[in-house]
């Protein structure tokens, strides 16, 4: 196969896999699973529930480096719109904003 930069993935697994003959199963490893959904509890006053407001939530999560082996703790912020009429029991879910995890085979 002739060398074409398009033939390689971002983490160069194709390049090293070709040189090493996929001896360590580089091509057969599963990709990390999608991050879990995130649920954050925020405190709101009665006035905020009645009129609506914007809240900022700070949280930390685990993120997997592109090498697929290292995990780093990342601090992030999320702006949340509290709409008028929300109930105390309202649960807002943010898909894909939770911790990333390794995929075990």
Detailed description of the structure:
The protein is of the alpha+beta class. The chain has two domains: 30 residues, no CATH class; 75 residues, HSP40/DNAj peptide-binding domain. It is built from two helices and four strands, in the order αβαβββ. The strands form two sheets. The protein has a two-stranded antiparallel ribbon. A two-stranded antiparallel sheet has the order 2-3. Strand 2 and strand 3 form a beta hairpin.
For this entry, give a set of tags:
2 domains; alpha+beta
Can I get a quick summary?
The protein is built from 2 helices and 4 strands; from the N terminus they run H-E-H-E-E-E. With 105 residues, it is α+β, with helices and mostly antiparallel strands. The protein folds into 2 domains: 30 residues, no CATH class; 75 residues, HSP40/DNAj peptide-binding domain (Sandwich), CATH 2.60.260.20.
């Amino acid at each position: 196969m002739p060398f074409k930069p398009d033939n390689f993935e971002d983490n160069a697994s194709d390049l090293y896999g070709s040189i090493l003959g996929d001896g360590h199963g580089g091509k057969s490893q599963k990709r990390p699973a999608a991050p879990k959904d995130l649920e954050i509890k925020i405190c709101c006053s009665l006035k905020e529930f009645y009129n609506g407001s914007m809240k900022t939530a700070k949280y930390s999560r685990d993120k997997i480096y592109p090498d697929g082996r290292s995990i780093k703790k990342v601090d992030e912020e999320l702006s949340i719109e509290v709409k008028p009429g929300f109930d105390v029991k309202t649960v807002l879910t943010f898909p894909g904003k939770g911790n990333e995890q390794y995929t075990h085979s």
